[in-house]
Design brief:
Structural class: alpha/beta
Number of strands: 10
Largest sheet: 7 strands, mixed
CATH class of the largest domain: Alpha Beta
Oligomer: single chain
Distance between the termini: 36 Å
Number of domains: 2
Strand order of the largest sheet: 1-7-6-5-4-2-3
Helix content: 40-55%
Length: 411
């Protein structure tokens, strides 16, 4: 009798587990069948369509009037005297470092927590990116850490306004003045951001570079912009982006090394249309961020993006990146969210631990502990201007469930 009872209980337990597993699978299947929430989505409407069609019908697809118009409008928007449109943010960083005089054997002090292009751009000129650790709150390059690695070969500082939060530029400006260094700002994620002194990112007079990939605050599909305050430098940039062609545009006269870094009139027309409702898109992004902050605030151990600074800094919202609790299986969380129809992505890996940088420069774990900890726990959630309250609530609910599953699995 006891054996039969035990067998009966075991069967019941197995049945309960099977039933629970079935419920879990059905829940995951239901989430996958529900409308998927993408990681990002551009805002494109009738104004963008009209602008692009107008250029198409003109027959002037490149080196036309929209380029200069987009440059003027963009420079005005960020408070810069001048701007130079280029084919990507990466191209802009490359040209800006060249304009700053960076060359073979030089060093550029920058952040290890960024999209890899900010470091790669120095290597294009056979210079070396020298990393320093980041601030644990803002996730931007720490000015004191940067100052500590400035050496005889240092030519420039390249702070990154990571995830749209303004870097502490006055501190970097003091370091640059003390050592006679150039500054190039990676503002590719920071359109709409404002410094504590009220100056918009890109408007301080340094070479600053913006990117217009499809997930950015403003998109041209692919594209970028360099803002600056010197007309001679702008003329030099315009030549280098166009194969080193002379200012008079003579087809056969190329008086310097150049690149094909032009931005088409089609892309610039799209950018002009986007500028027309940029403030609305930026406000919508702020609204989504506020809803996320409220929806995620009670998840234990989850770290949210730092709020705007008490001193007046204002983020230009690009992505919404959280840091998962320590010890959490991030890859498992990504898979679980994907099964429930929620896109997410580790964001960003530590540059110095990428295989190329390990092999080329000998970097190893433990060099930049703050960066490495943040990079190991960071996760980008769906974030775009059209995201509604229900979608934010669903992401929060599914993230909470995924984290609970991860905690149970690790236990």
């Amino acid at each position: 009798m006891a054996e039969r009872a035990a067998t009966s209980r075991a069967g019941a337990d197995a049945g309960s587990r099977a039933s629970a597993d079935g419920v879990h699978r059905r829940a995951a299947d239901a989430g996958a069948r529900a409308e998927a929430i993408p990681l990002a989505a551009p805002v494109l409407g009738a104004a963008e369509e009209r602008a692009v069609l107008e250029v198409l019908r003109s027959g002037r697809l490149s080196l036309g009037p929209r380029v200069a118009e987009f440059e003027r409008e963009f420079a005005t928007r960020v408070g810069a005297p001048l701007a130079c449109a280029v084919s990507s943010g990466t191209a802009g960083l490359h040209l800006a470092l060249r304009a700053a005089g960076v060359g073979q054997g030089d060093e550029v002090v920058t952040s290890p927590f960024s999209f890899v292009a900010s470091a790669n751009a120095a290597i294009y000129e056979r210079a070396r990116p020298v990393f320093a650790d980041i601030d644990p709150l803002t996730l931007n390059l720490d000015p004191d850490a940067a100052a500590a690695v400035v050496g005889e070969r240092t030519k420039a500082l390249l702070p990154v306004h990571i995830f749209g939060y303004p870097a502490e530029m006055p501190a970097f400006e003091r370091v640059a003045a003390r050592h006679g260094l150039a500054i190039v700002e990676d503002a590719c994620e920071a359109l709409g951001a404002v410094h504590a002194d009220g100056v918009r990112v890109g408007g301080r007079g340094h070479l600053a570079v913006f990117g217009f990939y499809a997930n950015k605050q403003l998109t041209t599909g692919e594209g970028g912009m360099i803002t600056l305050d010197d007309a001679d430098t702008k003329a030099h940039l315009e030549s280098e982006r166009n194969q080193g062609r002379a200012p008079d545009m003579d087809w056969l006269d190329h008086d310097r090394l150049g690149f094909n870094y032009r931005l088409s009139d089609l892309a610039c027309a799209l950018g002009l249309a986007q500028l027309g409702h940029l403030e609305e898109m930026l406000a919508a992004r702020r609204g989504v961020a506020e809803r996320y902050r409220e929806a995620l605030s009670e998840i234990e151990g989850l770290e949210l993006p730092c709020p705007d600074g008490a001193g007046g800094q204002r983020r230009g919202w690009f992505v919404f990146v959280v840091q998962l609790p320590s010890g959490c299986d991030r890859d498992g969380v990504v898979r679980e969210l994907a099964a429930r129809g929620i896109q997410s992505k580790p964001y960003l890996p530590a540059i110095h631990l990428m295989s190329f940088y390990r092999e080329r420069f000998g970097h190893r774990e433990g060099e930049f502990p703050v960066c490495e900890d943040v990079a190991a726990r960071s996760l980008a959630l769906p974030f775009f201007p059209q995201m509604n309250e229900g979608q934010v609530a669903r992401v929060a609910q599914e993230l909470r469930a995924a984290l609970q599953g991860s905690s149970a699995g690790s236990a």
